[in-house]
Amino acid sequence: MKVSIDNISKSYGKKRALNGVSFEMENGVYGLLGPNGSGKSSLIRILAGIMEASGGQVRIDGKDRKACDHLYRSKLGYLPQSLNFYPEFTGRDYLRFIASLKGVDSKKAQRKIGELAEQTRLSGDLERKCVNYSGGMKQRLGIVQVLLNNPEILILDEPTAGLDPQERIKFRNLVSIFSHDRTVLLSTHIVSDIESIAKQIIMIKNCEVGKIGTQTSLTQMIAGKVWLITMTLEELADYQEKHIISNVIPEADRIQARIIMDE
Ligand SMILES: Nc1ncnc2c1ncn2[C@@H]1O[C@H](COP(=O)(O)OP(=O)(O)O)[C@@H](O)[C@H]1O
Ligand SMILES: [Mg+2]
């Protein structure tokens, strides 16, 4: 299934959130990388079909998304930026509830919940109330919820927010496993969430797509522009104003800084 995002724009009143965003996805993990406020959630809500774009078109295998809305939704799994749970629900109640909303019949749902809980190491916790789960468990429950209808397209909005470093790595591995034969769009502002698993990285900044490429092609762009310089703390402050400093290592009375600049 090919998803084409064609010249999508979005404004909230006078506030512009997306400006002519275009790219295509077909099988594999796509990382939507951008700082807070860059328009990631706006794009994701449009792709999930819960918000209309102000302009442009989303096409599925060449057809307008709205023309194949029912089919598209049946193949879509969406994890919003924040998930809310009814306080009385156990993990299993929640998953059965979502399965019924997705129209998965109850026998199939029961089997699928068992399988996915096993794969996400949640089996032992399904009878506990999910409001009491840890951040990592809630996100794993979120991914199980996404996968209940065996979707071909997964859209995950900042799924690693609030996870500790170890949980992040586990989550990344989980996404990588589930991305086989599927199209996954994962938004994040943290490079390491997607750097080893994304087939393509879509960089979004100030409502626009900047660069699109593989991790290798994007890092290639700064080849020959990374400098290792030993300097004083005062000099570092000066450089920091004008350039991107990717790393600093303190030495005896100086600092070794890795700086990205043309010359
Ligand atoms: N419902 C809304 N009403 C007005 N402005 C909004 C709304 N949602 C998002 N925005 C604005 O649009 C821009 C993009 O937001 P968003 O898509 O949430 O970015 P991100 O997910 O990358 O943080 C931000 O400036 C944000 O303040
Ligand atoms: Mg967001």
Task: Summarize the entry for a quick read.
With 263 residues, the chain is of the alpha/beta class.
* DSSP summary, beta strand count: 13
End-to-end distance: 44 Å
Shape estimate: globular
Question: How would you characterize the largest beta sheet?
Answer: 6 strands, mixed
Average pLDDT reading? 93
Q: Can you name the CATH architecture of the largest domain?
A: 3-Layer(aba) Sandwich
Cross-sheet strand order for the largest sheet: 6-7-8-3-9-10
Q: Which ligands occur here?
A: adenosine-5'-diphosphate, magnesium ion
Specify the CATH class of the largest domain: Alpha Beta
Q: Roughly how many Å is the radius of gyration? A: 21 Å
Q: What's the structural domain tally?
A: 2
Give the number of helices.
Answer: 8
What share of residues is helical?
25-40%
Class by SSE composition: alpha/beta
**How large a portion of the residues is in β-strands, by DSSP E?**
25-35%
Low-pLDDT runs:
none
> CATH homologous superfamily of the largest domain - what is it?
P-loop containing nucleotide triphosphate hydrolases
Order of helices and strands: EEEHEEHEHHHEHEEEHEHEE
What features would you describe in this structure?
With 263 residues, the chain is of the alpha/beta class. It has two domains: 3-220, 3-Layer(aba) Sandwich (Rossmann fold), CATH 3.40.50; 226-260, no CATH class. Helix content is 31%, strand content 31%. The protein is built from eight helices and 13 strands. The chain has helices at residues 40-47, 69-74, 91-101, 106-119, 135-147, 165-178, 215-220, 233-242; strands at 3-12, 15-25, 28-33, 55-60, 63-64, 76-79, 153-157, 183-188, 200-205, 208-213, 226-231, 244-250, 255-260. It has a six-stranded mixed sheet, with helices on both faces. It is globular, with a radius of gyration of 21 Å. The termini are far apart. Residues 40-41, 81, 157-158 line the site of magnesium ion (MG).
